[in-house]
Design goal:
Layout (H helix, E strand, L loop, with lengths): L6 E7 L3 E8 L4 E8 L3 E2 L5 E3 L1 H16 L5 H4 E8 L5 E3 L9 E2 L7 H8 L4 H8 L8 H11 L1 H6 L2 E3 L1 H10 L3 E2 L1 H8 E2 L4 E2 L1 H6 L11 E2 L7 E2 L2 H7 L6 E4 L3 H9 L8 E6 L3 E8 L12 E4 L5 E8 L3 H16 L7 H13 L7 E3 L19 E3 L7 H21 L7 E5 L6 H11 L3 E3 L5 H13 L6 H8 L15 H17 L1 H13 L2
Parallel strand pairs: 1-6, 6-15, 10-13, 16-22, 22-23
Antiparallel strand pairs: 1-2, 2-3, 4-5, 5-8, 7-9, 11-12, 14-15, 16-17, 17-19, 18-19, 20-21
Helix pairs in contact: 1-7, 3-5, 11-16, 12-14, 14-15, 14-18, 15-18, 16-17
């Protein structure tokens, strides 16, 4: 008898790390191999990544799993892909890179975004895609290329995203998935490209660069002989093109388990807040911000708002403490400081200070877009001490999450959490009270890789549909619900009113600070 094909490999190609994760067919994580990749930044706002190097790193990560799982190639039933979203990966003749990829971090399209958002077609574009225009997106970047460096588009034969580029190298097929296709160039209702969107972006003449749309939960493509040699896997192994990493992480962490009103927040360096809704129940806000990203479930999408900075705010305040203590002797490690956060919060008063967590140099993107937005603390007195500042930062993360969910409609019926900060009991308590909703943590380790592996599991027939797969891969890993503290809910209700009103009042202050900075440089 031959070796059974009893494993699925999920590949999660992040901005700085590519991970290959092996799961058995019931969703148990068996092994992980990772390779650090790299990107380059420039003074002009560019952030670029080499296409050939990214493929080489992906192949190396897949080969790395062979060192951890015996007879890996014969056991792999399918490979699935997800990766960093947005960005522009241009491919030309012979499937060679036209130039280095413009990443989601690339800011060069900012002038074009300003021009397009003031255009007559912007609201129609937003209502089709459900997605606010920003410099991260392929549509914005291609529109900027069209205006400033059209020769790049002239040399291209197809415009891909990161995972699409890896799919091309694994299968020889130029394609993208319904999630990135619809929030960039399409309509989330029918998951197809939209002439309205292309026209609003001024890219009517570039439609030939848009690839075929493939749903990796319904169909796969075989691994080529060349890719088999590069990865150590068997030629012909089914390859599933997953959705963008944000929605794959949410799927793996429990954004959709059949429970009405559930939502999922990833609290990492950035904050990603998502709710699963029927495509005909999407709430499109007046500001034209956020994303609508399809789920690999018929008729379901996720509404998304993303904070530019979440735990980066905590990193900042803890670094201040470390620097201060270190100036008198041995500095505590970051881990030692993090271990003290819950204790500091236990000794402080919730909602005593207002903190706006806009610590990123790029400002904020959710639920409002303002490159000039900056962090601030309001309400300080001589009685406040360092733990009060830490409390204000954590409270600010709760307020930012509520701000994002409020822009998408009603508060969630239950919040599922993933990301390193979700392990903080104090942060969970703040989030539960700020949103007045129960909170549950997913114990899934590599949620992004799991999400795309779930798509492959459905595509190869291991499960009849995604709901059946979710019931075994995701729901059992949700920890018990933690209810909001009824005494804290009204405190954060009042706090949120002050948070929102002061945020609006600070806009001219941010603009003035930026103008003054420009005058002195």
């Amino acid at each position: 008898m031959g070796t059974p094909s009893d494993l699925i490999i999920g590949v999660d190609a992040g901005t700085s790390v590519i991970k290959a994760v092996a799961f058995d067919l019931s969703g148990r994580q068996l092994a992980t191999a990772s390779v650090r990749n790299a990107y380059d930044t420039g003074a002009d706002g560019s952030a670029t990544q080499s296409l050939p190097r990214t493929w080489a790193d992906c192949a190396a990560a897949l080969r790395g799993l062979s060192d951890k799982i015996e007879n890996l190639a014969a056991r792999v039933a399918a490979v699935a892909l997800t990766g960093q979203g947005d960005g522009t990966w241009l491919v030309g003749a012979g499937n060679e890179a036209v130039t280095d990829a413009w990443l989601w971090l690339d800011a060069r399209a900012a002038p074009t975004v300003t021009r397009l958002t003031a255009g007559a077609g912007e609201r129609a574009r937003f209502e089709a895609t459900g997605t606010g225009l920003n410099t991260c997106q392929q549509g914005s970047q291609m529109a900027h290329m069209q205006a400033e460096c059209p020769e790049l588009l002239d040399r291209a034969e197809v415009a891909l995203h990161c995972k699409d580029w890896l799919f091309l190298n694994l299968t020889g097929v130029r394609a993208t998935d319904p999630s990135e296709a619809s929030f960039t160039f399409g309509d989330f209702r029918n998951r197809a490209y939209s002439d309205t969107v292309l026209s609003a972006l001024g890219l009517d003449g570039r439609r030939q660069l848009l690839p075929e749309i493939i749903d990796g939960s319904q169909q796969t493509r075989p691994l080529t002989t060349e890719a088999a040699a590069a990865t150590g896997l068997r030629a012909g192994t089914p390859v599933s093109l997953g959705y963008v990493d944000m929605v794959m992480t949410a799927l793996g962490a429990g954004v959709h388990t059949g429970d009405t009103g559930a939502a999922c927040s990833t609290i990492g360096s950035t904050g990603v807040h998502m709710r699963a809704v029927a495509s005909d129940k999407v709430h499109l806000n007046a500001e034209g911000t956020g994303y609508v990203i399809c789920l690999p479930v018929p008729g379901l999408v996720t509404q998304v708002q993303t904070n530019m900075a979440a735990t980066l705010n905590l990193d900042w305040i803890l670094t201040l403490a470390g620097d201060l203590v270190g100036s008198f002797g041995a500095a505590p490690t970051h881990a030692e400081l993090v271990a003290r956060v819950d204790g500091w919060l236990a000794d402080t008063t919730p909602g005593a200070l207002i903190y706006h967590p806009y610590i990123s140099d790029a400002g904020e993107r959710g639920p409002f877009v303002d490159a000039n937005a900056r962090a601030s603390v309001i309400g300080l007195s001589a009685a406040h001490r360092f733990p009060d500042l830490v409390r204000s930062v954590v409270d600010g993360l709760g307020m930012a999450a509520r701000d994002c969910y409020a822009s998408m409609g009603a508060m969630p019926g239950e919040l599922r959490l993933t990301g390193g900060a979700a392990r903080s009991a104090a942060l969970r308590k703040v989030l539960a009270a700020a949103l007045d909703t129960p909170v549950r943590v997913s114990s899934r380790d590599e949620a992004g890789a799991a999400g795309c592996a779930m798509m492959a599991a459905v595509a190869i027939g291991a499960y009849p549909d995604m709901d059946a797969c979710i019931a075994e891969w995701t729901t059992p890993l949700l920890e018990p619900a933690e209810s909001p503290d009824p005494a804290l809910v009204p405190v954060y209700d009042r706090h949120f009113t002050s948070y929102r009103s002061s945020r609006a009042a600070l806009v001219p202050v941010w603009d003035g600070l930026r103008a003054a900075q420009g005058a002195t440089t």
